[in-house]
Amino acid sequence: MKKTISTLLIAGLSVFAFSASAQKLAHINLDSLLRSMPESDTARKVGQAHYQMLESEVESMQKEYQSKVQDYQAHKATYTPLIQNTKEQEIQDMGQRIQAFQGSAQSDLQKFNDSITRPIINKAKKAINEVAKEHQFKYVFDTSSGVVIYSEDSDDIFALVADKLGIKGSAKKSGK
After folding, report:
1. Measuring CA to CA, which residue among 112, 119, 74, 72 is closest to residue 92?
2. Blockwise average pLDDT, block size 10, the chain, 176 residues
3. Could you tell me which residues come within 8 angstroms of residue 17 by beta carbon, excluding any fewer than 6 positions away?
4. Which of 167, 172, 134, 173 is nearest to 152 (CA)?
5. Alpha carbon distance 127, 28 (integer Å)
6. Could you report the per-residue pLDDT of 153-173, keeping only the tens digit for each?
7. 3-class DSSP state for residue 138?
8. Is the distance from CB of 84 to CB of 114 less than 8 angstroms?
9. Which pairs with CB-CB distance under 8 Å and at least 24 residues apart come from 49-57?
10. Which of 43, 105, 113, 154 is 20 to 30 A from residue 168's alpha carbon, by CA?
11. CA-to-CA separations, 66 to 59, 70, 74, 77, 110, in angstroms, rounded
């Protein structure tokens, strides 16, 4: 009888210890969540309008460039060497300005899109963090990118693993 009680007590404590150390994990597809948020539609439309404005400016510059090239080719025979050189330099400068504008426009578009999507991403991540805390999840993984997007404070085992691998100066932390 004592042996049965002892066995049940040990089994109960083992189950308790296992459940106490069990960690709740969760996952979410952050990209799908972001796409389903109403703010994302607005941001997409605003971003698309900004893109179209920049694209329209590039097209306008390219048309002007083509016009200058065609005009130059049509009248080249009538130009003096000085005028030919001046026109060629104008065309070359315009081509360089178009390339510079395209590079700047691409950078501007990226920054613009980041500025309008950052608040949406922050809102989603805040909600994820709140849900994770409310439901006591230890880690939440983003299945769209394969990264951890939420984690409770935990032990950083960098130094332990570095020691195991025989890496000298392993007192540094991994940066978590």
Report:
1. 72
2. 47 44 82 93 96 97 97 95 96 97 97 97 94 91 89 78 78 50
3. none
4. 134
5. 12
6. 777 777 888 888 888 765 554
7. coil
8. no
9. 50/109, 50/112, 50/113, 51/109, 54/105, 54/108, 54/109, 57/101, 57/105
10. 154
11. 10, 6, 12, 18, 28
Closest CA to 116 of 9, 15, 39, 1: 39
pLDDT at 170: 55
Burial letters 14-30, b for 16+ CB under 10 A, else e = eeeeeeeeeeeeeebeb
Other CB atoms within a 10 A radius of the CB of residue 32 amount to 10
Length of the chain: 176
| β-strand pairing of 147-151 with 139-142 | antiparallel
Q: 105: which 2 tokens? A: 């426009």
Report the C-alpha gap between 121 and 41 in whole angstroms. Answer: 13
Cα first-last separation, the chain: 52
Distance CA 7, CA 4 (A): 5
